[in-house]
From TrEMBL:
Its EC number is 2.3.1.-. It comes from the Bacteria. The keyword Oxidoreductase does not apply. Keywords: Acyltransferase, Transferase. This is GNAT family N-acetyltransferase. PROSITE patterns: GNAT (PS51186). The keyword ATP-binding does not apply. InterPro entries: Acyl_CoA_acyltransferase (IPR016181), Bact_Acetyltransf (IPR050832), GNAT_dom (IPR000182).
Length: 144
């Protein structure tokens, strides 16, 4: 059986390794230890890990802008999928957001991540067709 707990910066190495092993997840410079520490400090109690004993088998990170929640990096080790881990992580995250008054959340899914898209649709999330996301990198680093 697995347990869910709040993510701490001490979990970074395990989470980063899991991200690197998970198809459909993109690890960028913005996912560095320093950036992750800032994110967790800015959004306390909104990111979670799933564990079996001391081993991290899943993660979800989230934050908010005061109005909307933004979920990132929901991932579960491939051998632990289809056991309710992703759903439990998602529910933990949405409940924490709801406690601070955030009732609507968004997630970005890479177009190449078919398994991710299927998961979100199965959870009742709706693919937006009325908006497009634009990004701007204020750096020479394309992996920012």
């Amino acid at each position: 059986m697995f347990s869910i707990r709040t993510m701490q910066i001490g979990d970074y190495d395990s989470v980063a390794a899991l991200m690197q092993e998970t198809p459909g997840i993109s690890l960028r410079d913005a996912d560095s230890r320093e950036s992750t520490a800032r994110y967790l400090e800015r959004n306390p109690g909104l990111s979670f890990v799933a564990c079996i004993e001391q081993n991290i088998i899943g993660c979800i990170m989230s934050g908010h802008d005061g109005r909307r929640g933004y979920l990132q990096h929901l991932l579960v080790h491939p051998q632990q999928r289809k056991k309710g881990v992703a759903h439990a992580l998602l529910e933990s995250c949405l409940a924490a957001l709801e406690q601070i008054g955030i009732h609507k959340s968004h997630i970005d899914v890479l177009k190449t991540n078919e398994a991710g898209a299927a998961f979100w649709q199965h959870q009742g999330w709706h693919k937006r067709t009325d908006i497009e996301r634009y990004s701007f990198i204020r750096s020479a680093d394309a992996n920012a």
